[in-house]
Design goal:
This protein is of the alpha/beta class. Helix 1 packs across helix 12 and helix 6 packs across helix 7. The longest helix has 25 residues. Strand 6, helix 8 and strand 7 form a beta-alpha-beta unit. An eight-stranded mixed sheet has the order 3-4-2-5-1-6-7-8, sandwiched between helices. The radius of gyration is 17 Å and the shape is globular.
Length: 262
């Protein structure tokens, strides 16, 4: 099992779109996938076709009321398992202020959830901020996938996020940037191409080759509670996320091979 957090402190970069559609594409490749929605907005939950306010248990129950992870797992219409979220997660920082080990709540819940061993991937969709929820994801995860747009402040933002991840390694020695994926990319935009080239030059080793295009079908799918594979499998957006899933799987194999070497 690999735990991968999809995170970026900046909003509007395609973070939830990436979490949902990467999960869908991994599941389509016969991988057992659990998507954990750790954003109070609950967009990843509704994006898989679930009604976030009708769930018996959510991430709030797990983190605040010690409900077991397995009790909150539901099968989504998208074809993979989900632990949903809604506004009950909002204000968690205040609720848990001063509580000992509040940054390890998710890690503890995952460690106690022996049923999670049946999954190949656990994908965590993080909130677009460095709050206690995101810190919990960073402490529990194996690696971070960072979606980002090729805009003016992208390089500075990635550098800041990299420093944040380095600081959090004190809490999780496994924590690392698994990869950076360019999202909402418009190849006709000169600035986007310039920033993309700079990203390759400065962070080439951690840049995914797959580039997610700005695609109308990707924007429409969440409004229908569908992943891009269910909404328009032939779209450029769907094809891009399938390529990204292939890269993630190849990374997993490479990491496993390296770990098994004497």
């Amino acid at each position: 099992m690999e735990i991968l957090a999809i995170a970026n402190q900046k909003g509007g970069v395609g973070k939830t779109t990436t979490a949902v559609n990467l999960a869908a594409c991994l599941a389509a490749k016969r991988k057992r996938v659990l998507l954990i929605d750790l954003d109070p907005q609950g967009n990843a939950t509704t994006g898989t076709g679930l009604e976030k306010n009708a769930l018996a248990y959510t991430m709030a129950d797990i983190l605040l009321d010690d409900v077991a992870l397995k009790e909150a797992i539901v099968r989504s219409p998208a074809g993979f398992d989900v632990i949903g979220a809604n506004r009950e997660l909002a204000g968690m920082d205040i609720t848990l202020m001063g509580q000992v080990n509040s940054h390890e709540l998710l890690k503890t819940a995952i460690a106690a959830g022996d049923t999670l061993e049946t999954y190949h991937y656990v994908i965590i969709d993080c909130a677009p901020s460095l709050n206690l929820l995101t810190v919990n994801a960073m402490v529990a995860t194996d690696g971070v996938i960072i979606p980002m747009q090729c805009e003016y402040y992208a390089l500075e933002g990635l550098a800041d996020l990299s420093q944040t991840i380095d600081r959090l390694k004190e809490l999780n020695e496994r924590l690392h940037i698994r990869g950076v994926v360019r999202t909402l990319f418009d190849s006709r935009n000169t600035l986007a191409n310039d920033v993309s080239n700079e990203l390759d030059a400065h962070f080439g080793a951690i840049m995914y080759k797959t580039v997610i295009p700005r695609n109308v079908r990707l924007a429409e799918a969440p409004a229908h509670g569908m992943t891009i594979l269910d909404y328009e499998k032939s779209s450029k957006g769907a094809q891009a996320y399938q390529r990204l899933a292939n890269e993630v799987i190849a990374q997993t194999r490479q990491l496993a091979s390296t770990a098994n070497k004497p």
